[in-house]
């Protein structure tokens, strides 16, 4: 006989089966992450203090850049090679920005280093990238640095130089000489603009003499859709 007690007993049994099934799925997911190194995508950080749009034109001189120097829109990224959100942007969002905006001539992207104090190797890693830039291979090194394991720190930078295919002897001399003054000037620029987190993007129109007239600021690892919206607004003159 099917009674209320039977219905309750059946519901209880089904609840236990559902619970056991859910636990099994969680355990399987953990095993996959441990076995294959599949890590969840980091969520963009919550920005508690948005920065103001800079009123001053920003000089692009000395900043590694990709894209047409006549592109109507300029994006300056302040980044840190040990920042997980910068890594997310470089590996997950930048390839689409390249295809949609940089390759089409709409955007020129410039890079400014902002090695945060909590990342002990970030400065040395950028110096290695800068030395690649002096041989015209900054962006190749940029991509390799963000694709490698975060645990690599400042190690094996010479191996990456071989992989990228630059003159290793010239690379070693560049690293020995140091590029600190260039990094320091970018850090001072970020401080003047009150930028203290990475990645931060200044987006705007090209000004006279190779400058950026900032229209909007994006903070954190933003999705492609956020850049699309800003590009549309800047092109429309909003």
What does this 3D model show about the protein?
By secondary structure, this protein is of the alpha+beta class. It has two domains: 40 residues; 179 residues, Glutaredoxin. It is 50% helix and 15% strand. The protein is built from eight helices and six strands, in the order αβββαβαααααββα. It has a six-stranded mixed β-sheet, with helices on both faces. Strand 3, helix 2 and strand 4 form a beta-alpha-beta unit. Helix 3 packs antiparallel against helix 4 and helix 3 packs across helix 6. The longest helix has 33 residues. The radius of gyration is 23 Å and the shape is globular. The termini are far apart. The N terminus is likely disordered.
Core attributes:
238 residues; alpha+beta; six-stranded mixed beta sheet; 50% helix; 15% strand; globular
Write the topology of this structure:
Elements: H1 4-36, E1 58-59, E2 65-66, E3 73-79, H2 84-102, E4 107-113, H3 122-133, H4 138-147, H5 157-164, H6 168-177, H7 180-192, E5 200-207, E6 211-219, H8 224-236
Parallel strand pairs: 3-4
Antiparallel strand pairs: 1-6, 2-4, 3-5, 5-6
Helix pairs in contact: 3-4, 3-6
């Amino acid at each position: 006989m099917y009674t209320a007690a039977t219905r309750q007993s059946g519901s209880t049994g089904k609840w236990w089966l559902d619970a056991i099934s859910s636990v099994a799925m969680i355990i399987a997911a953990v095993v996959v992450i441990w076995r294959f190194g599949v890590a969840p995508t980091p969520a963009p950080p919550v920005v508690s203090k948005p920065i103001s749009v800079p009123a001053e034109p920003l000089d692009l001189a000395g900043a590694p850049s990709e894209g047409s120097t006549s592109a109507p829109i300029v994006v300056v990224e302040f980044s840190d090679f040990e920042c997980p959100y910068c890594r997310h942007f470089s590996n997950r969002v930048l390839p689409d920005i390249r295809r949609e905006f940089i390759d089409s001539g709409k955007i020129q992207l410039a890079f400014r280093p902002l090695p945060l104090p909590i990342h002990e190797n970030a400065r040395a890693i950028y110096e290695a990238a800068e030395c690649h830039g002096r041989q015209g291979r900054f962006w190749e090194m940029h991509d390799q640095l963000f694709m490698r394991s975060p645990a690599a720190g400042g190690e094996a930078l010479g191996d990456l130089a071989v992989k990228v295919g630059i003159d290793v002897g010239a690379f070693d001399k560049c690293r020995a000489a140091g590029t600190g003054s260039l990094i320091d000037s970018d850090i001072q620029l970020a401080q003047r603009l009150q930028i203290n987190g990475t990645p931060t993007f200044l987006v705007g129109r090209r000004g006279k003499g190779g400058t950026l007239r900032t229209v909007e600021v994006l903070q954190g690892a933003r999705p492609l859709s956020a850049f699309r919206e800003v590009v549309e607004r800047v092109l429309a003159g909003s």
